[in-house]
Amino acid sequence: MKTYEPLGRREFLRLTAAGLATSFLPSLARARPSSTTRIRAVAFDGFAIFDPRPIVEAANGLFPGRGVELVTEWRTRQFEYTWLRTIAGRYTDFWQVTKDALAFAAKKLGLSVNPSQAAQLMRGFLELKPWPDVVPALTSLKIQGLPLAILANLTPEMMQACLAHSAMQGMFQSLLSTDQVQAFKPDPRTYAMGTAAFNLQREEILFVPSAGWDAAGSKLFGYPTYWVNRLRQPEEELGAAADVVAADLNGMDGFIRDRA
Fold first, then answer.
1. Are 112 and 172 in contact (CB under 8 A)?
2. pTM
3. SS3 128
4. Which residues have a catalytic role annotated?
5. In a 3-state reduction of DSSP, which class is residue 83?
6. Which of 22, 27, 28, 30 is nearest to 6 (CA)?
7. What percent of the chain has pLDDT over 70?
């Protein structure tokens, strides 16, 4: 079985698919002063849980020499479409956004992607597995009795499929999809799903994003934020910084204990 090491925002968009090896960042973790409100629940972005890099391997197999380029354009357009649709008030779910972004990327790059190939690439988003550090971290949180949720742009069907593919059913109390509020992150309505689902104050919910812009959105909303920055990525210049920037989920227990 192949194992994958983590990646960060730019490489997440590029997905480091050409066999580029990256390492965990043992010296990256740092905490900032914050309130001491007790953490009573934890919500995760989908890609803080699920590793997307196998999608690149599939693209490389279908389009040798062009797979990285295709996925880079695809993933970039995917997130741009979420933001544009939210601003324009033209919501459609993340599955459709992903299909539309793939079609655009193929046209832009002059690639002929037939329906079978498109279906294979899209299926990758239903078969994602967790990062290596995820299951041990979630198990520890469950032992502590903390309720967990995924709060993501992913559709409920995408989340359920990936959890089933990873044998992680039942790990999360709630699967909170932006479909519920018809807007994508970082719209504040999306983060508010967490307070409603847990029936807690925002200061009591730790949010774990995978992208710098999501970390900023979470902090602006008022969540304590543990940014899983799996590569050395700079913080976004959005006037909001995560409480912790770390290479993996292994430091969450300590952060939560410090606020007990």
1. no
2. 0.85
3. coil
4. 45
5. helix
6. 22
7. 87
